[in-house]
Design brief:
The structure is a single chain. By secondary structure, this protein is of the alpha/beta class. It has a single domain, classed as 3-Layer(aba) Sandwich (Rossmann fold), CATH 3.40.50. About 55% of the residues lie in helices and about 10% in strands. It has a 5-stranded parallel sheet, sandwiched between helices. Helix 13 crosses helix 14 and helix 14 packs antiparallel against helix 15. It is globular and about 55 Å long. About 30% of the residues are buried.
């Protein structure tokens, strides 16, 4: 009996390590809220944005050069706050697995995972048995939110992150066994969180816990507010909706979201070029206000002249500023 219990413990440990759960989807789609809910479950630990696990991988070259990757991590604003140890003796797959293990071992919960918004299809190369929870939000609200973050200068370009994430999800879903993928709508999570979390917990192999709704006690996030659903109806102009219906209307309909009722805009080459110029201008103005013109000029000079130490110093300062605003 002791031997059987020991074998069961080994299998359970392997499942935790080799079959983590990753929350994936576009930025500004509610993934942080979902992660907080899961992390307050007594059996689940879920790390914040862990893009650094796969961001330096490439389809052409595979794993990155380890010395270059180690140096990149030393200025990465997402990696640094977690205070994870970089073991230079480990291979790339071993190293990124160690990062997730280090983070999740702090709570010693049996289920573990992380959030990833970019290149999340690459996670399968590290964890071929991983499970994925895809959180989908109306792309019009995602595009609108990207403007407020300074990631885009207009909704046409704000739509890109949502489109990229949805295209990536379609490809990943085709390569992942059906029992390892779960799809959840942000709008449903906000409207009925207990029911949606109960179904998600069943997929994960556990039961819903009321503690999942205690996240607001340890974060700046409030309880789900139905008024946050379909904010695009109140906050986007008819012109912006026309651009978005042109850019993502077909994909929105595929995802089951209704049309706004606004006639889609026609965006030819000239207008597309003007939108690109507008995007670059407003993004620059946002960066100027946030970091200051002196920082932007110094960063450009350091990059052009190859002043590596100074450039790393500026990257660290910029990361500190960014982390003050990220929610």
């Amino acid at each position: 009996m002791d031997e059987l219990n020991s074998q069961g413990a080994v299998l359970a440990t392997r499942a935790r390590v080799e079959e983590p759960v990753f929350i994936v989807g576009s930025e500004r789609s509610g993934t942080t809220l979902l992660r907080l809910m899961l992390s307050h479950h007594p059996e689940i630990e879920c790390a914040p944005e862990f893009e650094f696990l796969v961001e330096q991988m490439t389809p052409e070259e595979g794993y990155p050069c380890l010395p270059a990757y180690h140096a990149w991590l030393e200025t990465n604003r997402i990696f640094l706050p977690h205070r994870l140890k970089i073991d230079t003796e480990l291979s790339y797959p071993e190293l990124v697995k160690s990062f997730l293990k280090q983070y999740c071992d702090r709570s010693a919960k049996p289920m573990r995972g992380a959030t990833c918004h970019k290149h999340f299809d690459r996670l399968l190369r590290i964890w071929p048995d991983a499970r994925f929870v895809h959180l989908l939000r109306d792309g019009r609200d995602v595009a609108r939110s990207c403007l407020g973050m300074g990631w885009a200068g207009n909704v046409w370009h704000g739509a890109q992150r949502w489109l990229d994430a949805e295209n990536l999800w379609d490809r990943l879903k085709q390569r992942t066994p059906q029992g390892h993928v779960y799809e959840l709508r942000y709008e449903d999570l906000i409207s009925d969180p207990e029911d949606q979390l109960g179904k998600l917990c069943e997929f994960l192999g556990t039961s819903y816990s009321a503690a999942m709704m205690d996240y607001e006690q340890a974060s700046t996030y409030s309880r789900p507010d139905p008024s946050l659903v379909e904010q695009w109806r109140r906050k986007l102009s008819s012109r912006e909706l026309a651009l978005l219906e042109c850019r993502m209307g077909e994909r929105l309909r595929e995802r089951g979201y209704p049309d706004s009722g606004v006639e889609p805009a026609h965006v030819g080459p000239l207008r597309r070029g003007l939108l690109g110029l507008q995007n670059r201008y407003f993004r620059f103005q946002f960066r100027r206000r946030r970091y200051g013109i002196t920082h932007l000029i110094a960063s450009k000079i350091a990059r052009v002249l190859g002043w590596g130490s100074f450039e790393r110093f500026l990257q660290l300062k910029q990361g500190e500023i960014d982390n003050r605003y990220i929610k």
